[in-house]
Automatic annotation (TrEMBL):
This is Rab-GAP TBC domain-containing protein. Residues 189-388 form the Rab-GAP TBC domain. Its main location: cytoplasm. GO terms for cellular component: Bfa1-Bub2 complex; mitotic spindle pole body. It holds the Pfam family RabGAP-TBC. It comes from Exophiala bonariae. Residues 32-47, 58-74 have a biased composition (Polar residues). Keywords: Cell cycle, Cytoplasm, Cytoskeleton. It is found in: Cytoplasm, Cytoskeleton. Belongs to the BUB2 family. Residues 95-111, 134-146 have a biased composition (Low complexity).
Length: 455
């Protein structure tokens, strides 16, 4: 393999993360030009109307769904040879820092979400802000400006591409570092103007033509259509955020298109190299839940389909095998990791006849999407897509370690584990980083390859 062809699932070489960029060196967007035809009263400051027009224009550039291929090529690099999965040493070096993500969950800093279908763009509603005069701007503290620069860096990088003189690999490393230290700015409902483009970039997904997705849709019902129909209406059925934004019809189309793609791949003559290596079912129960956050975050069904296809072919192909062999290896790894990290808790659960296969199967298969709340799932996925989907099994162990006292004091641990405690992405990520640092080399290697290993 050459230096410019890095597989997204290859174990990365071990290098330290690049240092965090100096916020003062980041150039903020220039102010729009004054309205030379307006009155004197509005030429000296930025009016709310001009601000709204400028931000709406920026939003349209980000969220246009008329052509998936065009929007993807404008907002992220093509599938180049960069290493999208940092090494264990990179994770360890960054975990020494204290992540500052409070701003990422503060709803007062973002706009509210409007009701929309998954295949329709959300209009941007600019929040009312006081116009800053020259005198008031001079009173802004340097720390406030630095914080604004950090918050804007993810969106600016996705919109404008890497800064001059920056390689694609180093730009992606900066994105990963920013996700871990600052997080993605989103509303309390988990909505972000650029999260979906960040996922496409981190998963190294090339521009995807919408016509490819539409061709699968126009084929009608797939061989797995009846199974899909039986599961769709149950998908996150009690989650009002999900049900308000994603329709059953959208989820059915995405799953049906995915089933057609797998069916074609597995029945082609001759078989594709992927189908020759991996035997996959057209659909398995649980893939509907895995698809749910993708549709919730996406601007179009084609985007959700592209990411789901990438996950099922590049990252977790054995999860969809007829025996779900990759998921079984994942739950076995949870028992091994827990025994290494906390032998007391491990022995306690086993004494109650609670191996991981009893309680952790849904969490492994769905990358924790089966546990609410949905906004926390997406924040956890920011981390997984940046540092490796395989880390999901360690995230499940992290959840057990975080509630170990409650588990040991509970009169019925099995009942408690029937539905995991609500996700707290920040705490899970912190604990995951601690576990990664403590795992033996051979056990961590098994984690990395478990979703692709055919043995």
């Amino acid at each position: 393999m050459t230096a410019t062809s890095i597989s997204p699932h290859k174990v990365a070489s071990r290098h330290a993360l690049l240092p965090s960029p100096d916020p003062s060196a980041i150039k903020l967007p220039d102010s729009p030009q004054k309205n030379t035809t307006g009155t004197a009263s509005n030429t000296g400051s930025l009016t709310e109307k001009s601000r709204g027009l400028r931000r709406l224009q920026s939003h349209n550039q980000l969220s246009s769904t008329s052509n998936m291929g065009t929007q993807a090529s404008n907002l992220r690099p093509a599938r180049l040879g960069f290493n999208s999965k940092p090494s264990r040493e990179q994770l360890n070096s960054v975990s020494a820092q204290q992540p500052t993500t409070a701003a990422a969950t503060n709803p007062s800093t973002t706009t509210g979400r409007v009701r929309a279908n998954s295949d329709a763009p959300m209009p941007y509603m600019p929040r009312a802000r006081k116009v800053q005069t020259a005198s008031s701007s001079s009173n802004l503290s340097s720390s406030h400006l630095a914080a604004h620069a950090r918050k804007s860096s993810l969106e600016m990088t996705l919109r404008d591409g890497p800064p001059p003189g920056t390689t694609t690999a180093s730009a992606v490393s900066l994105l990963q570092h920013s996700i871990l230290t600052n997080g993605v700015i989103a509303t309390k409902e988990g909505m972000s103007d650029y999260r979906i483009y960040l996922w496409l970039t981190l998963l190294n997904i090339p521009a995807f033509p919408t016509d490819t997705y539409l061709a699968l849709i126009h084929r009608g019902r797939s061989p797995a259509y009846e199974k899909i129909s039986n599961d769709v209406f149950r998908t996150l059925a009690t989650d009002t955020l999900f049900k308000r934004r994603v329709t059953d019809a959208s989820l059915t189309r995405v799953l049906n298109a995915t089933a057609w793609r797998i069916h074609e791949d597995q029945t082609s003559d001759p078989k594709t190299p992927f189908a020759s290596k991996y035997t996959q079912s057209t659909y398995l129960q649980g893939i509907n839940v895995l698809s749910a956050p993708l549709l919730y975050a996406s601007r179009s069904e084609a985007q959700a389909y592209a990411i789901l296809t990438c996950l099922l072919t590049e990252h977790i192909p054995t999860y969809l095998s007829p025996t779900m062999s990759g998921v079984h290896r994942g739950v076995d790894l949870i028992d091994r990791i827990l025994a290494h990290m906390n032998p007391k808790l491990s022995s306690f659960l086993l004494s109650k006849n609670l191996p991981a296969r009893i309680y952790a199967f849904p969490s492994v298969l769905t990358l924790c999407a089966c546990t609410p709340p949905l906004p926390e799932v997406m924040r956890l996925w920011d981390f997984l897509f940046a540092f490796g989907v395989h880390l999901n099994v360690i995230c499940v162990v992290a959840q057990l370690l975080l509630c170990k006292d409650a588990l040991q004091d509970h009169p019925s641990p099995a009942k408690m584990l029937r539905s995991f405690p609500s996700l707290n992405a920040d705490e899970i990520i912190k604990m995951t980083l601690l576990v990664v640092r403590e795992l033996p080399e051979d056990l961590f290697r098994d984690v990395v390859v478990h979703a692709r290993d055919l043995s």
